[in-house]
């Protein structure tokens, strides 16, 4: 009997996730050749502007994490702040910003990562977490994975545990989610777009 209940519960959870994914994906605007020719930009502002979709987007994350003991949500500069701060509020967790270098006023640790045309660096306050804190790492998009990999290294250096790296959109063809999984991180996205 328990296996039947578990099976139905899993099916219900999958259907809920698929529903959230479909609603959010339909609302995202695709902008060809931006910021440069050949790039298909996935614009989340249309999802945020629609109050119903924005609520469903937040609900998708809450639905996934509400039953877990989460100490903090770490949001990556800058669009990760949008979802991360609301999610932290809803889950009664703290919010920790992971910023571009030079934006935080106190003692920090930093991590550099490769971009297509150079390097970038993110940083976090040294006192952002307590050792053993359970953290959800949030950004808007998983592309090549460089930013999230750097952010995850910062979190781990401070002794916190990443429960999952989460994003609104995954672009699996660019390999970022694969790299995160190869590092041993669980990865979740509300929706995916094939082909970048």
TrEMBL record:
Q: List the subcellular locations.
A: Cytoplasm
Under which name does UniProt file this protein? Adenine phosphoribosyltransferase
Q: Kindly state which reaction or reactions the protein catalyses.
A: AMP + diphosphate = 5-phospho-alpha-D-ribose 1-diphosphate + adenine
Does the record carry Nuclease as a key word? Answer: no
Q: What keyword terms does UniProt attach to this protein?
A: Cytoplasm, Glycosyltransferase, Purine salvage, Transferase
Q: What residues form the membrane-spanning segments?
A: none
Function per UniProt: Catalyzes a salvage reaction resulting in the formation of AMP, that is energically less costly than de novo synthesis.
Q: Which Pfam families does the protein's record reference? A: Pribosyltran (PF00156)
Write down the InterPro entries for this protein, in alphabetical order.
Ade_phspho_trans, Adenine_PRTase, PRTase-like, PRTase_dom
């Amino acid at each position: 009997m328990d296996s039947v209940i578990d099976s139905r519960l899993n099916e219900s959870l999958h259907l809920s996730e698929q529903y959230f994914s479909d609603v959010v994906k339909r609302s995202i605007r695709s902008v060809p050749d931006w910021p440069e020719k050949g790039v298909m930009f996935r614009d989340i502002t249309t999802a945020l502007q629609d109050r119903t979709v924005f609520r469903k987007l937040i609900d998708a994350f809450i639905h996934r994490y509400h039953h877990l003991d989460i100490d903090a949500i770490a949001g990556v500069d800058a669009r990760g702040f949008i979802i991360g701060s609301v999610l932290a509020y809803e889950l009664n967790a703290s919010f920790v910003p992971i910023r571009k270098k030079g934006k935080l006023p106190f003692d920090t640790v930093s991590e550099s990562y490769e971009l297509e045309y150079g390097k970038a660096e993110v940083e976090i306050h040294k006192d952002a977490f307590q050792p053993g804190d359970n953290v959800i790492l949030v950004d808007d998009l998983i592309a090549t994975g460089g930013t999230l990999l750097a952010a995850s290294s910062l979190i781990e250096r401070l002794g916190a545990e990443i429960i999952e790296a989460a994003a609104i959109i995954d672009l699996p063809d660019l390999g970022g989610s694969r790299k995160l999984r190869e590092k041993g991180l669980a990865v979740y996205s509300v929706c995916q777009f094939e082909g970048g």
